[in-house]
Amino acid sequence: MTRIGLIRHGSTRWNQEGRVQGHTDNPLDEEGFRQAAVLAERLSRESWEYIYASDLLRARQTAEVIAGKLGIPLAGLVPGLREMNGGLIEGTTEQERVERFGSQWKTMDMKLESQEVARERGVKAIEEIADRHPRSNVLIVSHGAILRSTLAGLVPSLDVGILLKNTSITCLVQEEGGWSCEIYNSAEHMDG
After folding, report:
1. What is the pTM of this model?
2. Cα 5 to Cα 23: distance, rounded to the nearest angstrom
3. Res. 52: pLDDT tops 90
4. Which of 18, 14, 25, 20 lies closest to 60, judged by CA?
5. Quick one: DSSP state of residue 50?
6. CA-CA to 154 of 20 to 30 Å: which in 8, 55, 125, 160?
7. Where do the domains of the chain lie, and which CATH numbers do they carry?
8. Helix and strand counts by DSSP (H, E) for the chain
């Protein structure tokens, strides 16, 4: 059995402002570093052997905080797990999108990366990591939209309609029959 813990990165200034981040390489804000430290404390009571991150700074910084607490090296940066491309809406808030494109902007071609393309690259990246570390416990720090899209590909019966919280963890198990989800969007560590 291979266990994968999928983590959404900590908070950034753009998260706080409600801006679409996409491929923009934003750092964690002060709250994001605090969230990563709280999650790292939770994970230190569990058994994790490897940690990977998207190649975007906010995911890497989250992974580095966790790796430091767990005493495990950052095993690699994975471009296939970077956030979905935000196209023309990247860097904007909802209000700015309405002002720029009109209230029907969601019906327009905003040059967004498609769910299908994102799902395919995310599933491929996770399966490659799982193949590299069979029967291991592996953490992966990535981004909300790409994780939800990837989860829909790995566990089609899973309801991914709820947005992932910053530093939430979703745990998948790979056995001979495929993937199953043990925990979805767990962020109880942030309640204390």
Report:
1. 0.96
2. 22
3. yes
4. 25
5. E
6. 55
7. 2-190 (3.40.50.1240)
8. 6, 6
